[in-house]
Design goal:
This protein is an alpha/beta fold. About 40% of the residues lie in helices and about 20% in strands. α1 packs parallel to α2 and α8 runs antiparallel to α9.
Length: about 350
């Protein structure tokens, strides 16, 4: 895989953090995102990296103009769309910072976000974290990562908080992790492409003996699902998905458990598989399209079987650095269900629109 690099600025030492902004046809989001990075109170200690996944819009020229006078900046141009996981990995591999912040392009940081996030992470004794995530246009709560996992092994959604706290999974829109830890536990898994990648990485961080925190004073604003739900500009006005997203989300949820669970937590697959079947069946009835069952249930199962050799290799890799057993990980079990957030969105935005692609 070939990537072209352009560097800007004059580094005066190792940056404290490298912010990796992944982009695919998102030029409209870049000005505010980059302006907020440039306005950080610790801007001179930040390396900004745009990873462009072979956009067909004017993202690269826009980014080149915006980053021209940054203290430290890089544009990584991939020759094809590598997805969220390998796209971010390409940015991480050229990063020079002690920490990595994987930041979605549909975000903007409050001016003291990075200083508060880094200091709060270190004060909490954590190696990974997330800022408090607010909605893009205002200060209303969006999420604070995930606090644990539910009976199906899926991430248990967060609730509004008032202080820094331990969390299980930082959300993928603003995931901070120490660079050496990211490398030691194996980066994002390229096979995932996108979705559930933050969950898989966080399982490995905890298994390796580290700690993850949500840093309340640090604030980031996030639009969310801008690629899948483009209508509405800075506000989400519809609940939309597609067959490809359901395939990847469901397959990667299965892979996360198959990769990382040691023994007893593999039992989470027993309720998860019927849940995925029931959801796919209900979706097919509502859509009057039986191909949805194939895309969202049978294909994820079949692909897990196809990847059985990779699953075995990933389990061996995790076993090599495992410091925490399934019994230890049970402390993250929560009654709050992952699907609660989707139920809330249905009441707010109506039934999801599912595109057959």
């Amino acid at each position: 895989m070939e990537s072209n690099l352009e560097r800007f600025g004059r580094p005066t030492g190792q940056p404290r953090v490298s912010i990796v902004v992944l982009n695919y046809n998102g030029s409209g989001w870049l000005p505010r995102c980059f302006a907020s990075i440039k306005a950080q109170t610790m801007a001179d200690h930040i390396e900004t990296i745009l990873v462009d996944n072979c956009s067909t819009d004017d993202s690269v020229p826009v980014a080149r103009k915006l980053l021209a006078d940054f203290p430290m900046a890089v544009i990584v141009k991939n020759s094809r769309n590598l997805g969220f996981c390998e796209g971010n990995n390409t940015g991480a591999r050229v990063a020079q910072g002690r920490y990595l912040l994987f930041l979605n392009n549909d975000t903007w940081l409050e001016p003291d976000c990075m200083a508060l996030l880094l200091d709060g992470t270190e004060q909490a004794g954590a190696v990974a974290s997330t800022p408090y995530v607010l909605n893009y246009p205002d200060n209303s709560f969006q999420d604070f990562g995930f606090y644990g996992f539910d009976i199906f092994g899926l991430p248990s959604s967060s609730m509004p908080a008032t202080a820094t706290r331990e969390i299980f999974i930082p959300g993928g829109c603003s995931y901070l992790i120490r660079t050496d830890v990211f490398q030691a536990v194996g980066e994002f898994d390229a096979e995932f492409f996108i979705y559930s990648d933050d969950s898989d990485l966080s399982w490995r961080v905890w298994i390796a003996g580290h700690r993850i925190a949500g840093v309340f004073p640090a604030k980031v604003h996030h639009r969310g699902a801008a690629g899948v739900n483009p209508s509405g500009g800075i506000q989400t006005v519809e609940f939309r998905t597609n067959d490809r997203k359901r395939f990847l989300t469901n397959r990667n949820s299965l892979l996360t458990l198959l990769y990382n669970c040691q023994h007893i937590l593999l039992l989470l697959l027993i309720p998860l598989i019927p849940l995925l079947f029931a959801e796919s069946l209900a979706g097919s009835v509502l859509l009057r399209r039986w191909s949805f069952v194939r895309a969202s249930f049978w294909e994820p199962l079949r692909d897990c079987w196809r990847l059985r050799g990779l699953i075995a290799a990933r389990r061996r890799r995790v076993a090599a650095f495992r410091k925490r057993s399934d019994f230890w990980m049970l402390r993250f079990f929560r009654l709050r269900l992952n699907r609660w957030g989707e139920i809330v969105r249905v009441f707010k935005l109506g039934m999801p629109r599912v595109d057959a692609r």
